[in-house]
């Protein structure tokens, strides 16, 4: 079996194409599906906003793609009863990422967050309920939650991108909910490196509004409180009121 990092993920459309397989209405969700056409790949890639910067993180996307593909192949063979379907965070390929240097862990975590955002950007072409895409979401969520929550080695640019990716994630399924929560914890843990430019802070305020209005776990709301120090006192009070229903 090829080791993580062996593949060359040369283009962003190539990465996005794994989310674009089509399963027919008369086919079961665990079928492999039909590969996307070149036209569909081009259209979807054009719709996907590159918030993070694919070229600067190509090595991370390469590792992420291989983990997704290995897990997807296993689940397609088992028809969705394998470990990646049950609990992706415990899959050996995901666990292996914990052995990476923290800089690499940070990079693959932000790449996974960007991957989730691309699935939403490409909603027109993405069949969310297929086994293939459910495994992709499970794997990327598992990486963000299990690999990404480290308190150092995120660059300022990565943290700014995470804020903007976090606010762009609008789905309310369990995977996006957990991923947004983990992003909040990552940002709170790296508060001193978080840029204070107006674009980032404006996105942060919107992101915190989403966090406050969602049924998050206590550590996520604790992270929200910490991040609220970068907003106004009035906004912090509004966040507390909105989150009260979940606390």
Secondary-structure element string: HHHHHHHHHHHH
Structural shape: globular
What is the structural class? mainly alpha
The count of domains is: 2
What ranges have pLDDT less than 50 throughout 5 or more consecutive residues?
1-8
Can you describe what's shown?
With 247 residues, the chain is mainly α. The protein has 2 domains: 1-148, no CATH class; 151-247, no CATH class. Helix content is 60%, strand content 0%. It is built from 12 helices and no strands. Helix 3 packs across helix 6 (102-121) and helix 10 (198-212) packs parallel to helix 12 (233-243). The radius of gyration is 18 Å and the shape is globular. 44% of the residues are buried. The model is unreliable at 1-8 (pLDDT under 50).
Task: Using brief descriptors, characterize the structure shown.
single chain, 247 residues, mainly alpha, 2 domains, 12 helices, 60% helix, 0% strand, disordered N terminus
Outline:
The protein is mainly α and 247 residues long. It has 12 helices and no strands.
Topology:
Elements: H1 12-16, H2 38-47, H3 58-78, H4 83-87, H5 92-96, H6 102-121, H7 131-146, H8 156-168, H9 174-189, H10 198-212, H11 218-227, H12 233-243
């Amino acid at each position: 079996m090829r080791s993580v990092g062996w593949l060359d993920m040369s283009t962003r459309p190539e990465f996005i194409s794994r989310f674009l397989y089509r399963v027919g209405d008369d086919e079961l969700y665990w079928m492999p599906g039909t590969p996307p056409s070149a036209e569909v790949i081009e259209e979807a890639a054009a719709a996907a906003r590159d918030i993070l910067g694919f070229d600067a993180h190509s090595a991370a996307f390469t590792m992420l793609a291989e983990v997704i593909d290995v897990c997807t192949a296993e689940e397609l063979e088992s028809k969705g009863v394998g470990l990646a379907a049950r609990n992706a965070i415990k899959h050996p390929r995901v666990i292996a990422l914990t052995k990476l240097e923290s800089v690499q862990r940070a990079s693959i975590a932000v790449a996974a967050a960007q991957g989730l955002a691309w699935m939403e950007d490409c909603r027109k072409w993405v069949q969310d309920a297929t086994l293939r895409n459910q495994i992709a979401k499970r794997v990327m969520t598992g990486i963000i939650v299990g690999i990404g929550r480290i308190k150092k080695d995120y660059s300022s640019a990565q943290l700014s991108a995470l804020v903007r990716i976090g606010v762009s994630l609008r789905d309310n399924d369990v995977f996006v909910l957990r991923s947004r929560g983990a992003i909040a914890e990552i940002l709170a843990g790296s508060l001193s490196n978080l840029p204070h430019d107006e674009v980032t802070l404006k996105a942060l305020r919107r992101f915190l509004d989403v966090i406050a209005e969602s049924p998050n776990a206590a550590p996520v709301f604790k992270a929200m409180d910490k991040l609220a120090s970068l907003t106004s006192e009035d906004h912090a009070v509004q966040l507390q009121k909105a989150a009260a229903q979940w606390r």
